Amino acid sequence: MQNTVISPDLIEQDNAARLDALEEDYAALSRALERRGIAIGQVKERAKDWSVAVPSWGAGRGGTRFAKFPLAGEPTNIHEKLEDCAVIHQLGRTTPGVSPHFPWDRVEDYSALREEAESYGLHFDAVNSNTFQDQQDQPQSYATGSLSSTLEPTRRQAIEHNVECIEIGRHLGSDRLTVWVGDGTNFPGQQDMGRSFDRYLDAAAEVYAALPADWTMMLEHKMFEPAFYSSVISDWGSSLMAAQELGEQCKCLVDLGHHAPNVNIEQIVARLHRAGKLGGFHFNDSKYGDDDLDSGSINPHQLFLVFNELAEAETAPRGGFDPAYMIDQSHNVTDPIESMLSSAETIAGCHARAWLVDREALHAAQESNDVMLAFRTLRQAYETDVGPILAMARMEQGGAIDWLGTYRASQHRERKAQERRAVGLGAGIV
Ligand code: PSV
Ligand code: MN
Ligand code: MN
């Protein structure tokens, strides 16, 4: 029996009140797409098959390095986080995977945790290691870096933590490890840029050696923060070099917030795919840096263009195409459940719209250098409102047509505010 957090009767009642309007919108869109030679049912089935994982850490209120403003009823441990992730998936039906972070999600019994997730119809996605923070009772500090530290005992500790994450992931049923390190410098001359990369590679090779044969190790680059002069894995070039050197099972993960402003991220996606090294994504949006804002809230067009490259890549796979899709956001001013439902819908919408692109027409326009026609071919797909397709797909799978209305009617957060331990004030994680 599946454990449902929101009453299925409530979802059904809410859907019943909205079904007539949805059917009208869906029929109108179906006719419009038919004129373009697109069968709406196929797009809907593709939408049903697609999913994006939510981050366990995103279930709680985020913060900045200045403050965190807790939300009454927010989760404070992995069990409560799973419960909220279950709500997100129950209403939205696109987020069955949860990406955990260690040691934040540490428990005694990982097999029991896996069963707990499964009772909600969830599974564990990529495991994230954390060597960017010191933990209580940890023998070595990461103040000098982690995998690239000049200090051998510190590198050893970082290696062992990553190997432990793989072990935990095996119990959880995961098959991917995401490695992001904050290693870098704040001053010119502080460390040798070549030698720190070498130390990183040597240490990362030991983690790689511990990977089970069917696992993928994903390297996540980030231009700056916490290091403000140089970062060891600062960009996709460094990430690609490292992934190529480490081996077949090592790929690159693209977090949309980890680039220089105005960088053409969709082109990076195409390049990494070309190299057979596109491992996965952390979706979020940004205006200035690694803002971790809700996906598509600032630049939805960029998100669509990323998915256009992914659709292109999927139709021309090079050595296997199986990127891991994850959300990585910090919800500072919203209810994280609402933000992740909204983000998952936005991301799924960009995915669906990328598959509305008339690819034959696009390729023909590109070949004949018909610039305007090529641009309009993409634009036509981007401007199509796929809301009715996503809502119909959700409803047919037991989710909510109007996830926001149903979620608020459920009073989940209000109930949790009575039951859960209150969160103290303090700075959040960045
Ligand atoms: C770093 O900014 C990052 O994007 C990495 O993915 C971390 O694991 C995550 O944020 C968590 O804060
Ligand atoms: Mn990230
Ligand atoms: Mn980040």
Automatic annotation (TrEMBL):
Single GO MF annotation:
metal ion binding
Q: Could you tell me the superkingdom of the organism this chain comes from? A: Bacteria
Name the Gene3D superfamilies for this protein: Divalent-metal-dependent TIM barrel enzymes
Question: Is Ligase a UniProt keyword of this protein?
Answer: no
Q: Which ranges carry the Xylose isomerase-like TIM barrel domain?
A: 107-296
Keyword annotations: Isomerase, Manganese, Metal-binding
Sequence intervals crossing the membrane: none
- Please report the name of this protein according to its UniProt entry: Sugar isomerase
Give the organism the record lists.
Aurantiacibacter arachoides
